[in-house]
């Protein structure tokens, strides 16, 4: 759905949306699609790309704020659709930081030997929780899914330059939960509710928190800013991405931006952007890639990865 199409439904314009956010279009799930079907499609694509069979997956961690049902976890529906029942499968709720949280949880489970091969998925149908009459939120979000395959460290993939997650840091500040939230839920209103947001406040917190966690990971991993080949950020707003990169002295050329074509797909945005930059040849095996995200809660985090 382009900005022009959106402007037919709500009092906004392509000029306003593009100038304030960098968004030009977003994808909206069709009537037969759900978070589980999008997640399953992404999982199949990731398995094919990794060249591994679904039967070898013994862990599925699915990040979403828009599950198919209150329970069971959408991850279990994906597990069944992939035909790999029996392993671990659960959802992670950290909204736009969900993929970073899911990645860290899966990495920890692999490193402790609880599982051998994981699918980490970020999948959302935010279009279902938008108030399509609220122009301050409905222009910002889109639907989508992305996935990665992770493997436990082994003799074959060990060593200093081996692929893997080098360092992750996660944070939450529950005192800010009412700046970005959904005004419904099973335990409160017994309705699904809609996204509500105090945009300018979210913007300010996003830049400060993201810059801080990126500094933390850079310092804890013992790398220099210049050693980072690519930054794959959560895609909320082009201005947040620019301001964060500037604060850290990261060249804008190293920042993967897909917010123009996907809008904010919450937990799906980081794996979607990673996929785009791998497919167009920017991100290659051996590259040092920083992932980062911030979302409702607030929650935020970053992971440094060797591809
Ligand atoms: N179309 C036209 N006008 C609009 C629209 C719209 N879609 N939305 C708001 N406006 C108007 C407002 O009513 C206001 O008008 P007024 O001055 O007459 O009162 C004017 O535009 C400015 O509104 P602001 O909210 O001050 O605009 P701002 O420049 O802060 O941009 C935005 C708003 C884009 C939401 C920005 O604050 C932002 O990006 N915040 C971060 C929010 C975010 O990314 N959330 C996603 C989840 S969290 C995350 O992923 C990091």
Question: Which descriptors would you attach to this protein?
Answer:
307 residues, alpha/beta, Peroxisomal Thiolase, Chain A, domain 1, 2 domains, 4-stranded mixed β-sheet, globular, binds acetyl coenzyme *A
Helix content: 25-40%
Shape: globular
The CATH architecture term of the largest domain is 3-Layer(aba) Sandwich
Residue windows where pLDDT falls under 50 for at least 5 positions: none
What is the structural class? alpha/beta
**CATH topology (level 3) name of the largest domain:** Peroxisomal Thiolase, Chain A, domain 1
How are helices and strands ordered from N to C?
HHHEHEHEHEEEEHEHHHEE
Treating each run of at least 4 consecutive H or I residues as one helix, how many helices?
10
Q: Widest sheet: strand order?
A: 2-1-3-4
Average pLDDT over all residues: 96
Radius of gyration of CA atoms, rounded to a whole number: 18 Å
Strand content: 15-25%
Task: Kindly give the count of domains.
Answer: 2
Ligands bound here?
A: acetyl coenzyme *A
Under CATH at level 1, the class of the largest domain stands as Alpha Beta
Distance from N terminus to C terminus (CA atoms, Å) equals 33 Å
